[in-house]
Each structure stands twice: as C-alpha cells, then as structure tokens.
Amino acid sequence: MINSPLNRRLRMALCGGGGAGFIGKVHRTAATLDGRTDLVAGAFSSNLDRSRESAVAFGVDPDRAFTDFQALLDDELARPENERIDFVSIATPNFLHFPMAKAALEAGFNVICDKPMTTRLADAQELARLVEQTGAVFALTHNYTGYPLVRQAREMIASGELGEIRAVRASYVQGWMRGVDPAAPAARGMWKDDPEKNGPGATVGDVGTHAFNLVRYITGLQPAEVLAKLMTYSEGRQLDDYGHAIVRCQNDALIMITVSQVTHGRLNDLSIEIDGEKASLSWRQEEPNTLTLRRTGKAQQIFDRHPGADFMNESGIAACRLPAGHPEAFFEAFANVYTAAFDDMVKRATGEAHDACNTVYPNVYDGVEGVRFIEQCVASSQNDNTWQPMC
Amino acid sequence: MINSPLNRRLRMALCGGGGAGFIGKVHRTAATLDGRTDLVAGAFSSNLDRSRESAVAFGVDPDRAFTDFQALLDDELARPENERIDFVSIATPNFLHFPMAKAALEAGFNVICDKPMTTRLADAQELARLVEQTGAVFALTHNYTGYPLVRQAREMIASGELGEIRAVRASYVQGWMRGVDPAAPAARGMWKDDPEKNGPGATVGDVGTHAFNLVRYITGLQPAEVLAKLMTYSEGRQLDDYGHAIVRCQNDALIMITVSQVTHGRLNDLSIEIDGEKASLSWRQEEPNTLTLRRTGKAQQIFDRHPGADFMNESGIAACRLPAGHPEAFFEAFANVYTAAFDDMVKRATGEAHDACNTVYPNVYDGVEGVRFIEQCVASSQNDNTWQPMC
Amino acid sequence: MINSPLNRRLRMALCGGGGAGFIGKVHRTAATLDGRTDLVAGAFSSNLDRSRESAVAFGVDPDRAFTDFQALLDDELARPENERIDFVSIATPNFLHFPMAKAALEAGFNVICDKPMTTRLADAQELARLVEQTGAVFALTHNYTGYPLVRQAREMIASGELGEIRAVRASYVQGWMRGVDPAAPAARGMWKDDPEKNGPGATVGDVGTHAFNLVRYITGLQPAEVLAKLMTYSEGRQLDDYGHAIVRCQNDALIMITVSQVTHGRLNDLSIEIDGEKASLSWRQEEPNTLTLRRTGKAQQIFDRHPGADFMNESGIAACRLPAGHPEAFFEAFANVYTAAFDDMVKRATGEAHDACNTVYPNVYDGVEGVRFIEQCVASSQNDNTWQPMC
Amino acid sequence: MINSPLNRRLRMALCGGGGAGFIGKVHRTAATLDGRTDLVAGAFSSNLDRSRESAVAFGVDPDRAFTDFQALLDDELARPENERIDFVSIATPNFLHFPMAKAALEAGFNVICDKPMTTRLADAQELARLVEQTGAVFALTHNYTGYPLVRQAREMIASGELGEIRAVRASYVQGWMRGVDPAAPAARGMWKDDPEKNGPGATVGDVGTHAFNLVRYITGLQPAEVLAKLMTYSEGRQLDDYGHAIVRCQNDALIMITVSQVTHGRLNDLSIEIDGEKASLSWRQEEPNTLTLRRTGKAQQIFDRHPGADFMNESGIAACRLPAGHPEAFFEAFANVYTAAFDDMVKRATGEAHDACNTVYPNVYDGVEGVRFIEQCVASSQNDNTWQPMC
Which chain C residue is nearest to residue D19, measuring alpha carbons? Predict the structure, then answer.
C-alpha cells in the first residue's frame, strides 16, 4: 500500500540474494509484502549472466543488474532522481557488508543491512559515523524484533509492567550443522567458518547476535561486561559452534545467552524469558503468535497476537497485519523491520526529521553493539573466560 | 518471481476488498507474495471515491477503479490484450460471488473466488457448467489447503501411508461472536446473518465449509449422507452460530464436523484428526508448522514443516518457501492457493491443457460440494436431524 | 492419615484385582494413598491359590482370601465388629458388578464400584433402591472427577463464573485396540466384546460413560435426549469401538461425546471443552495439572493446579496433595474419589447424616444415568440415529 | 506389595515431617505407595505433644514418637529385632541431616536422606566413609531421578543411542520467593536463608543440586571444573536466589545449570536438554510423561511413558506403575527412589551383596558431589567467577 506522503513506492536495490537462495528471497518478499517498494536494481551475483537472469526473474530491468556494487551505485547516481533507488538492501556474506554499506552511505543512499553488521568493530564504528554524517536511514535486519509480540513485550517493559528487569535467559539453538559435511565445498554457508569472511565468531555471531539484540531490544538493559565460553564440537571446524555468554548489566541484571548450531533436530529455536520484579515474560520464535506473562500466585496469561484484545498495546497492534488466530510468521516479522525503516526513509525524503538513535527497527548502533558482543565473547573465551567490558 | 513461460506477470482485478478490510488485504498480499502478479484494476467499493482512493493506495491506475463490476469487465475487454487482466479475485459478501463469477467467466476471465461459492446450490452448479464451457481456471479460496503440511498430509494419505481412512474429526471453533452486539449496524459481517446475502447457513457456511473441504482435500473420502444439528446461541440472531454435522462416507467412514463462533476466547481454531487403519494424523491451523503422526505402540512423530527432512514428500516440499524453524503462516498458505491457480492460468494462456477436475487448489466442484453441504446440514437440522443425501 | 472421628483406619475388601492386573493395583494404591484404610480381605481371583497368593502379596491374612464373594461376606459378618470390613471395592468385569454390589449392600456394607455400574438399566435402578434402603455409601469410580482442576471447574461453573452453559464437547480417544488381535484369547479385556459380560455398548460404555459423567459432574447440565452413531471398525468385533453421541439438554445446551478405541497412537485422551455465556473452559486428562479459561478479547488464563494461587476455589484446593509444579496425576485423582467416599463412610459409621444425592464422588444415581446413556446410545444407533429420551 | 524374600514389610522411622508439612507427607506417601513398608516410629517434631499427635495421625504407636533423634535410636536398639526399624528417613532442615544420618548409620540402620546431604563437604565425606564401613544402604532423595522417562533416558545414553554427549542445559526455575516476605518469621523455609542451617548456597543448593544431579544421573558425564555466577535479587536475603553455573567435564562437554527462585509464576520448572553426537533429548519435570528425541533431518519423536511401546527400555518399563495415558507424577517418581533403595535393603537384610557405588537410586557419593558442587559454585562466585575444581 502506498501510504506515504511521497505518493510513490520506494525503489530498492538488492546486493546478493540472487538465484533461489534463502536470504535473498526473504529480503525481496519482506520488502515488497505491503506494496510499499519496488525492486528496481541489483548486484545479485558476481557472475553477470546469473545477475541478469535473477533480474529477469525478479521483474527487474536487466540493464540495472550488475556484478560490481560500485558500478550499480554509479549507474544509479547517473539516473534522474525520479528513477533512482531510495535504498540498498545488503544480503551478502558478512565481509561484504562493510564496503557495500560504506559505499551506499557515501553515495547518499539509505541502507538495510544483514547482521552481524561487520566483521570488525572498527568498521562498525565507521558505519555509525557515516550514518551520522549523511543522515541516512540505516536498518539492521535483526528480523526477530519485527514480531508483533516482541514489540508488545518491549512496550510492556518500557511502561513498567514488569518492574525492574533482574534477569534474562535467551537461547538460540539450531542443529543444521549436524547435517553438514564441513569438508564438502557446497556445504551451506562455508564462508561462515572463515574468520576473514565471517568475522571472529561464528555461531556467536550468526545466532548469538540475534539473541543478544532481542534481549536489548525488548528490555533496554545496558550491558556492562561479558564472560563467555565458546566451544567447537563439529569436527574440522575452526570457529565456534556452541557456547554460553553471561552479560552483567549496569543495573546488575544478568543476561544469559546460549547458542548452538549442533543440537540435533533443533530448527531455529530462539527463545527468551525475562524476569522482572513484578512479572516474568516468555516468548519463542517458533511459536511466535503467543506471549506468556506470569505472576507468582496468579493464573498464567497467554497473550495471543490479537489486535482486538484488551491487553494489546500500541506497538503490538501496529505490528499486526491479520486478526488473531490467523497466524503471522517469519516473513511478516521481517517485513515489519522494512516497514519501520520505510517510515524513516519517507521522512528523510520529504525533509522531515527522524530520530536515528531511537528507532523501531534495529539500527547502526545496535550493529556496533552486536559486533562488540562477538569480539568480547571471543576475547573472554580465549582469555580463560574472564570478564570483558561491554561499554 | 516471473517463473512463467508467459514471460510476464499476470494481471489481476479485485472485487471488493477496498479500504483497510481484512479479506481484501489478504487477497492482495497473497496474490502478489511471490511477485507473479500485479493488481491492475478493481471494483474495490460501491462508492466511487472510495474505490479510487483504494486504487491509489494499492498502486492501481484510478481510471481502472470502478463501482460496478460489469463496467470493469467492459473496460477490460475494450483494452488491448497486453494490458487486459488475466483474472478476477472476488472478495465480496457471499451473494455477490455468483453474479460476479458468472460475468467474469462469460467475459473469458479466470476467477479466484471466496467461499462459500454461492448462496444457492443451483447457482453453484451453473458456475461449474460455465467453467466447463469456458475452460477458465476457477479457484476457490479454501486457503487452509495451502498449508505445506496439509498438502504433505494429502499426499501421505493418497500414497497409502495411513491405510484406509475410517474416521475424521474436524472442528472449526471461533469466539468472536461473543464480542459482537448483533443490534449494532457496524458489527463485523452483519450481512452474515442475512439469509439473502449470506445463504441459508451462517457458521456452517462460514467456517463449516472450510472444515468440510479440509477433510475432503486431505482424505479424498466420498460423502454419502449428512446428519446435522445446528443451533443459534447468540441472542437476536436468525442463523446458526454453532453445530455438529456427521457425514457418513461411501466407505462407511464417519466425518464429524464441529463448528462454533460462540466459544469464548477461541480464535480461529481449525483442527483435524484422521484415523487410518495404519496410523492417525493430526494438524491444527493455529500451529500450522507441525503435523503429528501416531501409530499404536510407537513413538509419536512430529513432522515439522521442513523441506530438508527425510519425511517430507513432494507436495509438502513444493509448498514451502522457507527452511524449517522459520515459521510460515496464513499469508503463505493463502498464496499457495493463488500460486497453484497461476500455474493453470499460465497453461491456459499458453494453450497448454490443464486438468480442471484434479487440481492442487480447491476448484469449482469443491465449491458445489460446499454449497450442498450447507444446504443439507440446514435441511437435516430443520427436519429432526435426519440423514440427507450428499451425493 | 487417620483424620477421622472413628479414630481408626477403615477396613477394605477387594473383589477382583488380584495378580499384577492394572485396575486392582489402582484400587489398592488409591484406597491406601492417604493412610486412611487397610486392605484386610478379598475375593481376588476365582482360583483359590491365586487368591491366597494375592492376599500374601498384599499383606492380607490368607484366611480372609476367597474365590466366592458370598463366602467373603459371610465370613465378614461372622467376625466381631472391630475386625469387620467397612466397605467392598468391586474391580471385576462389568457383569459381576451388580450381583456383588447387591450382596454387599444387603449385607450392610458400603460399596466402591467400577463403571459402568451394571450391564442393564433395571439392575442399576435396583442398586439405587438398595442404596436408599440401606443408607450405605455407594461410590462409582468415575475417577477422572477426582482431579483437582476438575473439581475446580465444577465449583467455578456452580458459582456462575462461566454463565449459562451452552455447549460442551467431550472426547475420549484411545488406540489400544489397534494393537489387539480380537481372535487371541489372551487379548486385553476379551469380555469387553461379549454383550452378556460387558453390556450392550463397549467403547461407549468403557470410555463413553467416563466422558458423559465428566460433563455431568462439571456442568450439572440435565440431559433430555440423545442421538448416537456407533461404529465397529475393528475386524471381528461384535460391539462398538467408535462413535459420536449428541445429547440435547433440558436448557437446549448440546453435549457432543466422541469415543474411540481405534485411533492409532492415542493413549487415554479424555478432554473436555465447555462453552459458557461468559467464558469457556478446557481441560485434558493427559495433562491434568492445567485448566484453561478463555474470554473473548482477554488473555487466555492458564490455571495451574496451585493450592496457593488466588484463582483456586475451595473444591480445587481441597483436592490437592502437593504444591504447584509438583505434578499430581492418575493415582491421586483416583484416591480423591476414595477419600470423599471415606468421609461419608465415617459419617455413616458415627451416625452422622450424609447426603447421598449430592456427593463429591460419583454416586449410584450417576451409575443409573451412565447405564441409561449406554442403552439409549445403542438404541439410537440401532434405530436410524433417532433421538432417544434421557430422562 | 510384599514382593520380598524378607516375607514382611520394611519398618520405617521418619525424622521431621510432622504435621501437615509438605516434605513429610511426600516421604510417607512415597515410602508406602507400593505397600512395601510401614511407618512405625518417628521424631516428627521437636515438641513432644506435636510429635505424638503426628504419630497418632500417621497410625504410629505414640510410644514410638520422640523429639530427640538419639532417643529414638536408643529405643529402637532396645527392641527385639522383629520390631526394630529397617531404615530412617530424614526430612529435616539441612543442618540436621549430618548428625542424624551419622547416628543412624552408626546404629546400624539404613538411611534415606533429603538433599543437599550436608551443609559442609567434610561432613558429606564422613558420611561416605560411614556408609562404606557399615555397609548400610544410603539413598539421597534426588527424587526426579525416579521418573520413568528419566531412567529411560539414562539407559538410552548408557547404551550409546545418543553418541558421545557434548553439551547439556539444565535449568530449575521457581518463583515462590516472589511471594515471600523475607522479614516474616513464618515465611516458608526461613532456615533456608541461614548459612548455618542451610549451608553456604541457598538456591544453588535447594534446586541447583537437583539439576546437577539429574544431569549426572542421566548422562554419567564426569565434571572437571565449575564456574558460577550467583546473585541475590530478593531484598533482605543473605544467600543466593538466582544463578548460572558452567561445568566443564572431563571430555570437554559443557553443562550449563541455571537456577532461580525469583522468576515470577514459575512453579517447579526443572528441565534438561542433552546434545549427543547422534541425537538430542529433552525432558521437563512439569510434564514428566513425555520425552523428546530429535535427530537433524528426521521427525521429532515423542516418547510417552508407555510400558507397552517398542521404544521403551528395561529401566523405563521397570519404573512404570500404570499404562500409558494414565499419567504418573511426583509421588510415583519419589516412590521409585524408595523402591530401589528397598531392593538393596532387602539384599542387605538377607545377606545378599549390593553394589553401593552403582545404584539405581542417588547414593552417598552423589551426596558428596552435590555438596562439592554447592561449595565450588559459591567459591567461584565469590572469586570473580573463576574456575574451581570439581574432582
């Protein structure tokens, strides 16, 4: 739906995500779910034929398909403003996030970037500076923040319904690595075991940053220091595939983050339980349409994703597309990150101010924090599991 | 994605579904989820301003927005073929399905129609004749058939994994009517209590046909006769809001259909359990990403919607868009009905034959059967709960 | 615990239940769980050696072990009052319930009897007359009524928390018959397919009366008439193994009872959902420690079996032995039926009045109703599924 | 049932557990559930009247009720052997476990003792020496090991079905402390915040040792060192009420133990998930009748507590009292610890050897390990969360 003062759809370029790959389809589907954007350009593949084939398949003019990201940007800048893209979505392996995001920001475009934001903290910090300089909209696709009941939980906590938060347990457990032969060149995400391309932490980066960000997003707790124990259980791997991180927060709350990609049969099991002084909350990504509130001595309350119910708050309702009982899921949550970023892109395009620090979507500062989380978990794990500063 | 020998997206018109209404948004989102169609025209509202506003909001040229469905068809027929719509989606109150579908078919267009298909059996049968005459693609949006694990179940049963099916229990239970004041003109779906606009059965039509169709779709059981007991528990209503129907099948299997729209707090609880000679299966729409298989004396098996797992069959895999653990839900299932119909529309447009009787999507014959189910449930209920023929 | 004005434990005789059989162990364990009774006599088996062996194993004086029930009664009557049993528990095949219960009542003893109470309605009615004549305590082990949250639900409804009850769906689904060879003489419960020994309805009697009684116990709804469709799906069986019964109540509420013993992999799945004007309730025997209350537009409330919680009522609390989170289950529920009957036995023994019509435990009138339910379900099923009176 | 070469029931004394208290009732009920023991003596209370009242209520001769444990032992030793107790159950606050167990062992009796075994490691080690010297049976009531599916899991792992165990996550989360006023003298378990009476770790001892023991019992993993972070979130408390402990095992497996008694609304939520090279297993105490086995790429398998199913092993079957679908719970699991200890007591009484190191029930060495776990968790937490040896 074109619900925008711009009176037009936004124009999107996609980096990576060609062919039938998972994450490219997710970005395309999520970005266009509400009819607010058109995919018009892309560097879909490092092979020109494949990039152009993808363009055709995606309904994009093949002349706007490139292999080189800078060429794409140059081409865009040469186009009249009413054709030019509004934003770039970066869905490439980790090590390409930084150069692409940097170039896109410098060219004046808004950026939607996969996580972790960069492979090094210094690069992440440079992106933050660039966002500040350019005023561009920068969203990081910590997509699980887009679930309606995650936003509901965030507002509940911000409004004090849980009292002070004392402890959080978040865990992100997968098992796909049990089915991967690490020696096979075609194995899923081989670059994820290459520190140069992936960054220093594998599972702690791939899923750990999601869990950490989810805690931060929902609770607003400020981390003080982290202690981690990372392990590599899959034979032949260099990087971690399992671990625990304990984050001590500035108010002395504890956050326990557990990550695994080697737990047989677990799929994409991100879950969180939050202990407040007044109540506790729990939520699980694989059954995202319910949120449980508990108070000692009271009935457990199951909150359905239910825009018409008396318990729903503004943030929760705003993130729903369907009535209760009509389950919403991964694509819709992912699209909610896009939608929130689109709102700020429209503001920027129409000259209206947007608050880059306090966004509905995870932003560049969340990206910096995520990269710091990875680096300090690795540092703690390599230094006898000692505490490392997180601020 | 334009994965089509047509080498272009299909062109869609939408009847009804203007404004912020639920079902219109569902049709628009589902139809466009995979990038295979563009909404280009519509009779979105019976008020011209609102119809045009909707057009703008949906990115449709306002000159192709109408209030009168026949005007829309005339306009389309006057356009060059390369602009003309391929199909019409009908998302209006029940009584408009028949005249619109009839006109669309007579004008040569394909039709996607909401359920129940018509308010009278004779009208349903006329549509079936028209589909046969025109060779048009006709899909009925019994959207729950689009869930990957529903299609998985269907193929499992067709291939004999459950043995002969002996009994099925399907239940579709909602509670929203407990929050509706039947005297309030703005109450949701007021036309649903008007037999002229809705047809003779309300809840048995609104949700009962979904449950009945789901049983038929998954099991292929052939109904012989039905006995029903319908009730009206909401004060001030004319039509049913609760009931049970027992269907005896030709192989003497029993299907029990339970429907309610007056069960406090139930949302959209469509569930099914199927007893076969070799195993039983159960599935529930509100948690659509798992299917349970049971065999006496064996471990229960939970099948995740998991395109990479060893238990998935072709039908199940083909209906997945995401890897396991990344939940798919209502929109994706709804889109799968569209997708399957698109495949046949492309065949028709390119002159390839399609089998109108044996479709992946619910078709016009399912529509006839659904309307017969409603009429015979009402007849049984009004005649001392005696058996009424279903074939 | 001897919490009794009698200042002693009650003395129990057991009929049937010798050896390692399931139901005898259940009765012994349940009866003695709270230390309020001692098993002192029995007709454990029709084989004297086996009856005596059982006695020894159960800590009973072998001289008080018999094969013939009347001999047991005679022996008891010959003993001094301070040795004599207080009650007889009857855990035999159905056809023995009536002669044993009759003899026990006539001899002045209290009776705990398995269900269904008798194989014929006339016998059941005779037992009711005998109970009235003798003033004996008579409890029927519809053991599922002993679950704390079942009693909680009963009091909630009695006190009006759900408003008028409009509809109930109860279902009792098992699958063990899928593993039984009906031709094998040792198959579990062979007498259950013999109408002489079992009564006219098999599954409708075995599990259907439990489901029906549970509805009656919790809701107090008064049945008016019943329509049933019973089926036999297991090869070689005479009696029913599957079916549905619709009970129309005097207030026009509908009760749907579904029974099966042929659903692959289902264990002992008794569940109930109750629709009231103000709220709905659901509970499931296999997860008996939670009860769910729903109200349209509100959060679902999960009531744990939690004697310390603010939502628990007197009946619920009184039936708990353990704090919340320490699950209680089948034995404890069964024991609660005994416990309640013990309270009335103590009253009777001390000359205090007890109200035989309005008991915490299922009583002889529930037994009459259960046998009527079986007979009328069979009659309806044999008469073209017509309505049969239930009052 | 007297299934014993002794040809009589065992005789039990109970220390503590008078009145209506929770843990005394649990011990009495569990010990007598199978009719293998009689409670014949006790030091039920430090108040003589109350101790005698308890005796009467429990069916015990009041002359065998004491306030002083040594007096009880002296009285027993003075009795003829055929009256004398076989064992003592100790259900007192922690600090009394050691002197009572020591005295009972020295007097030649078997001991069933609550956990944690002692308040100091040295005392625990002394008990181990005494057990070795006396040859007495000593069982520690880590009652959760008595669940049938826990024993099933243990045998599955011992037989290699999961492959090498790489990681375990166990968590024991309660919330009752949220409802306790720490200043109120009558608050539940006040002695639990007194290091003299409770030992140095509160929640880590109260529930943490259960979780740790459960991991050890099921997996057999050998701990090498532990790192812990304990917190006190309840105002006014001295000791811990929340924490995490990471145990590194000798095979480099990680065990994460999470404990809380301050999580609003959580009841008694002990859960465990075990990652093996070949499969993972998960189980939860509040729903103890199912166990889940997962393998990447396969259907999840839900194992019901089902003595007749093909997946059950000997250990699992032996621990069941009821057929599947008839839930068993806390009392039955607790009784299984007693039952296993009874088997060894009978062996000892009849002069048959029993293996004190390798027992079905948690034994004195588990007790030593549990106290070491507490002490080293506290030490780590007080020393900047450094690793402390566990062997």
Answer: C1
Residue D203 sits at φ, ψ, to 5 deg, of -65, -40
Its pTM stands at: 0.97
Q: Between the CA of residue B189 and those of A180, A267, B22, D241, what are the distances in Å?
A: 52, 40, 11, 53
Q: What is the mean pLDDT of chain D?
A: 95
Q: Where in chain D is the domain with CATH 3.30.360.10?
A: 147-323+370-382
> Please, where in chain A does CATH 3.30.360.10 lie?
148-320+370-382
CATH architecture of the domain with range B149-319+370-382: 2-Layer Sandwich (3.30)
Q: Which CATH class is domain C10-144+338-362?
A: alpha beta
Residues of B in contact with C256 (CB under 8 A): 244, 256, 258
CA distance B156 to chain D (A): 14
CA distance D215 to chain B (A): 24
CATH superfamily of D147-323+370-382: Dihydrodipicolinate Reductase; domain 2 (3.30.360.10)
Give yes or no for a contact between D43 and D51, defined as CB atoms under 8 angstroms apart.
yes
Q: How far apart are CA A18 and CA A41, in angstroms?
A: 12
User: Residue A212: which residues within 8 A CB-CB, separation 6 or more?
Assistant: A170, A245, A247, A255, A257, A369, A370, A373
Q: Provide the shortest C-alpha distance from residue C285 to chain D (in Å).
A: 8
pLDDT at res. D184: 62
CATH 3.30.360.10 residue window(s) in chain C:
148-323+370-382
- Inter-chain touch C265–B276, beta carbons under 8 Å: no
Q: With CB atoms and an 8 Å threshold, state whether D286 touches C327.
A: yes
Tell me, yes or no, if D279 comes closer than 8 A to chain A by beta carbon: yes
Is A31 in contact with A335 (CB distance < 8 Å)? yes
Cα D112 from Cα B84, distance rounded (Å): 85
Q: What is the location of CATH 3.40.50.720 in chain A? A: 10-144+338-363
* CATH 3.40.190.10 is held by the domain A10-144+338-363: no
What are the tens digits of pLDDT across the range C117-159?
A: 999 999 999 999 999 999 999 999 999 999 999 999 999 999 9
What are the residue ranges of CATH 3.40.50.720 in chain C? Answer: 10-144+338-362
Q: Within the 122-181 window of chain C, which residues sit less than 8 Å (CB to CB) from chain B?
A: 166-167, 169, 171, 175-176, 178-179
Tell me the residues of chain A between 288 and 327 that have a Cβ less than 8 Å away from chain C. 293, 297-304, 306, 308-311
Which of D59, D306, D332 has the CB atom closest to C35's CB atom?
A: D59
Question: Edge-to-edge strands of the sheet including A110-113?
Answer: A37-43, A10-16, A87-91, A110-113, A138-140
Q: Which residue of chain A is at minimal alpha-carbon distance from C323?
A: A297
pLDDT digits (tens, 9 = 90+) for D136-177: 999 999 999 999 999 999 999 999 999 999 999 999 999 999
- Among B319, B324, B313, B348, smallest CA distance to B336 is for B319
**Touching C: B residues 73-132, CB under 8 Å:** none
Kindly state whether B233 is in contact with chain C, defined as any CB-CB distance less than 8 angstroms. yes
> Tell me, which fold does domain B10-144+338-367 have in CATH?
Rossmann fold (3.40.50)
Could you tell me if residue A307 is left (phi over 0), alpha (psi between -120 and 50 degrees) or otherwise beta?
A: alpha
Structure tokens at B179: 């929050």
A107-A112-A118-A123 Cα dihedral, nearest 10 degrees: 30
Q: Is the CB of residue A252 less than 8 Å away from at least one CB of chain C?
A: no
Instruction: Given CATH 3.30.360.10, say whether it is the number of domain A148-320+370-382.
Output: yes
CATH of domain C148-323+370-382: 3.30.360.10
Q: In what order do the strands lie in the sheet with B37-43?
A: B37-43, B10-16, B87-91, B110-113, B138-140
Contacts of B384 in chain C (CB under 8 A): 387
Q: What is the pLDDT of residues C160-217, one digit of tens each?
A: 999 999 999 999 999 999 987 666 655 557 788 999 999 999 999 999 999 999 999 9
